[in-house]
Amino acid sequence: MAVTGGYQLQRGDKRLILAYIFIALAHLAVGILLGFMQGMQHAGIDLYKYTFLAHYYQGLSIHGVYNALVFTTFFIAGFLHFAMTYSLKRPMHSTKLSWFTFWLMTAGLIMVDWALLTNRASVLYTSYAPLQAHPAYYIGLVLVVVGTLLLLANCLLTYLGWRRDHPGQKTPLPAFGVLATLIMWGMASVGIAVQFIFLLIPWSLGLTDGVDPLVSRTLFWFTGHPLVYFWLLPVYISWYFMLPKQAGGKLFSEPLARLAFLLFIPLSLPVGFHHQFLDPGVSTGYKAVHAFITFGVFMPSMLTAFTVLASIESGGRARGGKGRLAWIKSLPWNDPSFTAQVLAMLLFALGGISGLVNASFTVNLVVHNTMFVPGHFHLTVGTATAMTFMAVAYWLVPYLAKRKLWGRRVALVQSALWFVGMAIMSRGMSWAGLMGVPRRTALGSAPYVLPEWLTAFNWMAVGGAVLTISGLLFFVVLIMTVLRGQRAEDIEVPLAEPLQEETIPWYLDRFRPWVIGAAVLVLMAYGPAIAQLVSISNPASPGFMPY
Ligand code: HAS
Predict the structure, then answer these.
(1) Which atom number of ligand 1 is nearest to the Cα of residue 126?
(2) Is 90 exceeded by the pLDDT of residue 444?
(3) Would you give the DSSP letter of residue 262?
(4) What average pLDDT score do residues 201-213 get?
(5) 230 CA distance to ligand 1 centroid (A)?
(6) Which of helix, strand or coil describes residue 142?
(7) Please, which pLDDT band fits residue 61 given cuts at 50, 70 and 90?
(8) 221-230 pLDDT, tens per residue?
(9) Is the CB of residue 474 less than 8 Å from the CB of residue 390?
(10) What digits encode the pLDDT tens for the residues 165-190?
(11) Is the pLDDT reported for residue 102 higher than 80?
């Protein structure tokens, strides 16, 4: 099935997508800089005293929120808007709703920015109570999340319109991926909606006296784990439906691709207790259930590893590559967008393995709350997601700005540096974690640092410095592309076709059975445990702002 081709996006859509990407990248720039300062702090060099930041924890909160929440969410909103309209070859159902969504999210973001930059929300990106932030921070985040739900509504309406006009046709693949991502996220967001609206906002406004930290954390992780798949599924949209074309090949299996996206709907949700293996108040039985389902959600990523690799191989062979492995040489390694994504995959394989270490109930005792966990998530969200979004920006920004990519070689060097920097930094973090080094700690000024930790800290600092140079190069390439890139009207949008035309069973093109399955699984895996937590809840903790 030819996915699509040659559709011209409306000017308003292009502007909107560019605006989302601009906000995402502006926040990423600040986030990267703060990451560098953290790395230096761990190596004993305090750069905070030269800034307006009050302390390490303010910097860490901004770093986490900007990189993990703002960069991702705004980039995803722009990219999904693009993938939806381009693959269905029609504008969104409501242009007014699209712009309202953007402005609502931006208004929320301004509140979040204000609270973070003025040290009123140094509660780290997990918003753990009883650390308390200014109400503006919580309300701002709620507005951003409501924006993503409005995007879901607009995409669903657009899809229904498309279905009416194309009876009996299969949903084009990128749009299918967009819907799977947003439907999963819509269900996942229930946890933080309840946490923020009924617990944290009234508490921060002084309308309630206290909050129960355990109930609050449980609701957070109800959303918090699926949130990582909200960061990952747009990456898979690129790896499955775009990257094969960039490799010069085709999507190896359409049914497997659809199955992987659909499996994430039921399997991403009931796994939040794997972040709480060490928390009291939740029975071992429920923790074990979540551990098993976590091994289940590993599967669609394994499907992805094999399907995407086979699709890339089809590209290598189509370009004349032969032999068992010699085809790898024929791949378009001079294309920074392609190369960056393959490098991201290589590190993501390690990120997946470290995820299994985390998920293994008893082994989690060794790594929980240590630097091992940041070692894991810099290989996943910091590499698979961030590097793929950079790679997407390398063709999407030229397409939207109608300019050729400036500095192809610089972009290649940038991608290689991100790979090397992340490999070094995550290696240092994982190693430190296994020695018991705590995460979320100003280690550079901690009195208990052991001499044997120092080499790992230096790895973290060196990796962080390499990443900062890479980040700088990324922005140079994009800014120069917009300002100096050669004008071009014919920038190609890479959309891959399946290797062979196949009949797709109805359940691989419909979401309802998977949504019902997800709801049942969530009720079974979470219902009694949450009821128990609420029944013993003691909402007595006042807020603390220790910084
Ligand atoms: Fe995770 C903690 C388990 C995936 C992000 N995770 C975190 C935190 C973050 C995060 C941010 O069970 C910290 C939260 C906090 O602040 O406390 N995670 C997993 C598991 C997976 C997983 C089992 N995590 C992700 C992804 C993330 C992410 C994806 C962001 C995008 N994670 C955990 C657990 C914890 C946790 C526990 C809690 C730890 C604790 O104690 O606090 C799986 O979904 C991973 C599946 C991945 C794979 C890899 C597939 C590989 C592919 C590429 C291969 C292609 C190749 C091609 C090699 C199975 C698809 C090469 C090509 C050539 C041409 C050669």
Answers:
(1) 16
(2) no
(3) H
(4) 96
(5) 12
(6) helix
(7) very high
(8) 999 999 999 9
(9) yes
(10) 999 999 999 999 999 999 999 999 99
(11) yes
CA dist., res. 468 & res. 501, Å (int): 44
CA of 445 to the centre of ligand 1 (A): 30
User: Which run of H or of E encompasses 450?
Assistant: none
DSSP string covering 468-518: HHHHHHHHHHHHHHHHHSPB-S-PPP--PPBSS--PPPGGGS-SHHHHHHH
* Ligand 1 binding pocket, CB closer than 6 Å: 126, 228, 231-232, 274-275, 294, 297-298, 301-302, 304-305, 309, 312, 328, 342, 345-346, 348-349, 352, 355-356, 358-359, 364, 368, 373, 376-377, 380-381, 384-385
Partnered with residue 317 across adjacent β-strands are none
SS3 541: strand
Q: In the structure encoding, which two tokens stand for residue 113, read together? A: 């920015």
pTM over 0.85: yes
- Ligand 1 atom with the smallest distance to the CA of 360 is 12
- So which residues are the catalytic ones? 225, 229, 376-378, 439-440
Quote the tokens at residue 95: 């242009």
Q: How far from chain centre, in Å, is Cα 153?
A: 21
Whether the pLDDT of residue 382 is over 80: the answer is: yes
Interatomic CA distance for residues 294 and 291, integer angstroms? 5
Q: How much of the chain, in percent, has pLDDT values that exceed 70?
A: 99
Predicted confidence (pLDDT) per residue in 238-295, tens digit? 999 999 999 999 999 999 999 999 999 999 999 999 999 999 989 999 999 999 999 9
CA-based nearest residue to 267, from 286, 239, 295, 235 = 295
Q: Which atom of ligand 1 is nearest to the CA of 309?
A: 57
Query: Looking at ligand 1, which residue's alpha carbon is closest to its atom 20?
Result: 355
Query: Which residues have CB under 8 Å from 234's CB, separation 6+?
Result: 75, 76, 79, 80, 177, 181, 385, 389
Q: How far is the CA of 201 from the centre of ligand 1 (A)?
A: 31
Contact 248, 315 (CB under 8 A): yes
Using CA positions, which residue lies closest to atom 6 of ligand 1? 377
Distance CA 23, CA 30 (A): 11
* Element of type H or E holding 170: none
User: To test the ligand 1 pocket, which listed residue (238, 256, 367, 377) has its Cβ within 8 A of the most ligand atoms?
Assistant: 377
